[in-house]
Amino acid sequence: xxxxxxxxxxxxxxxxxxxxxxxxxxxxxxxxxxxxxxxxxxxxxxxxxxxxxxxxxxxxxxxxxxxxxxxxxxxxxxxxxxxxxxxxxxxxxxxxxxxxxxxxxxxxxxxxxxxxxxxxxxxxxxxxxxxxxxxxxxxxxxxxxxxxxxxxxxxxxxxxxxxxxxxxxxxxxxxxxxxxxxxxxxxxxxxxxxxxxxxxxxxxxxxxxxxxxxxxxxxxxxxxxxxxxxxxxxxxxxxxxxxxxxxxxxxxxxxxxxxxxxxxxxxxxxxxxxxxxxxxxxxxxxxxxxxxxxxxxxxxxxxxxxxxxxxxxxxxxxxxxxxxxxxxxxxxxxxxxxxxxxxxxxxxxxxxxxxxxxxxxxxxxxxxxxxxxxxxxxxxxxxxxxxxxxxxxxxxxxxxxxxxxxxxxxxxxxxxxxxxxxxxxxxxxxxxxxxxxxxxxxxxxxxxxxxxxxxxxxxxxxxxxxxxxxxxxxxxxxxxxxxxxxxxxxxxxxxxxxxxxxxxxxxxxxxxxxxxxxxxxxxxxxxxxxxxxxxxxxxxxxxxxxxxxxxxxxxxxxxxxxxxxxxxxxxxxxxxxxxxxxxxxxxxxxxxxxxxxxxxxxxxxxxxxxxxxxxxxxxxxxxxxxxxxxxxxxxxxxxxxxxxxxxxxxxxxxxxxxxxxxxxxxxxxxxxxxxxxxxxxxxxxxxxxxxxxxxxxxxxxxxxxxxxxxxxxxxxxxxxxxxxxxxxxxxxxxxxxxxxxxxxxxxxxxxxxxxxxxxxxx
Length: 762
Ligand code: ZN
Ligand code: ZN
Ligand code: FE
Prior knowledge:
This protein is an alpha/beta fold. The chain has 22 helices and 29 strands.
């Protein structure tokens, strides 16, 4: 166990007393902590009590073995709990006769943490399928080790009346289990059974509610229809992964053209389809049960449209009893994608009409969801998790920071993959994934969640850390906190800050932010940035050479415009310009004209846009269906190559601010006679080496030998590993993301961390 801040100060008067009062702080509610304390106390023959408070857990024990009890309590904590600190002192004896768990007391301030939702445990799974068990096939089975937490909690302390389970009155049998300290459901707040718990219903136009909704739902799925299924943090849209027709329909309904869908399957099914490393397997069956992106082994039983052209597939295991029952019935992998349209927040309210716009039927129940949460998504890099989305199963767990703030700070995140983060003292709590804030509904969802976190953690922001972009919709939330001081944090500094925060670094680092787009200090669009400094002062010492983004947003959706603009900038000659523009007919001509006139162009140093342009230039695609679409194709192509040696040329110049000029690379890649895959690979290798060269310059100037890699482009595992190797070959220590994503989902953490550092210095 880490982070024990023991403060044992025996009161002189009671030094010999046999009664000890202990308060525990940390993740101690909703994780089986009180039953654990109960069992420890009993085992040592002690009397007294334990209770949840708004600040943590309070214990009083009395007897001969109080020291032994305390040792056991802090060293053998339940698997889901985490003690961040405790205080103990001797108090007068009370000669209590037994050990009890007493009802919770109210209000307190933000020291208590909220448990994340936990995937179905092995013992509950066994009971679920034991014909003799009274919870046989009960779709909401749970215990102190598993089940819903964050998504059902309305307020703290964590007790049934403060969850959305409050409307279900326990039957006598459940009540007995709940109250029996040796029971594994002792004080399991969501405890319930067939007799007293939530009820499933299958709703569809023109059918009577089924007697056996699960069997009926299985039949609907097997026949190729689309179901909205209520999960822990919201609704999924589910259909057979092998049904081309169902998957194609789902794409139309969701208005999502090519972005891969996540799948759900048993470990066996997953291993048939993907290469499952040991690290991936551990992640899949971990309590947070995230979607894990893995290399595809076989496409059997998976419709091509699930993940068109992608060599990686995202899979998760069934993490609720209902999921498991559905999968057992269907016996094949299911598409399980968040119920929403493109980038809106996930649907979690029981709005049947809205859901029936997206699905043929709705499999729902009457336990309300208090906080929505999309599934978490992760990859594996060097045997470690490499997060893409930190959400269900992981939020609202805190990160401990190397520095803190006495003032409460709220970070409002970026426009894409929006999250917010709250920071108080030396602790940050990043929120779940919310959506894209330019999408309708996202801002309202974010506002509601900020309020919810405020209530749970007794948090009122005194400082707002926001992106510099003047047009980010997130900025509208500033008005909600009229008294708060606003601190602007540049987007790519925030990326680097998020990495420093999670890695616990407060000293100097070289920060490489290879990203899509973000608003720069100079009003241009940044996205290929090199920083040097500590969290309070990150100086931009270099960047990619600027190029023009013709027509702004449009060039992001249609990267061929960008490619054309680069061909002009490179002076590639009339013939090649005409050939490239000719592919787009009249539009090509018009865009070429606009580019030549030089109107509506915005200078950018974005690495993501450079990937877009290169993909288009070498013929991997011309339009982008989702953020990172073309860069992913470029990566996929490179990974299929035989990894040829060699590099393309590039130049490093400039004065105080160093400029990495990749124009020579673009010329070379156009002239290269290698195949597309080989060229894609050499592009990656060259960029990795150029980054290492830039880091050398920073080290020569400063002596700093730590390099951090962040920004959305580093979701590209090939670039990540090539860059890390290039840096390690030069003797650098390399830091990469392990807790929050390298993409914009991590920005809010970086915002609060850098703001805290700046305020501390001030
Ligand atoms: Zn369980
Ligand atoms: Zn019951
Ligand atoms: Fe970004």
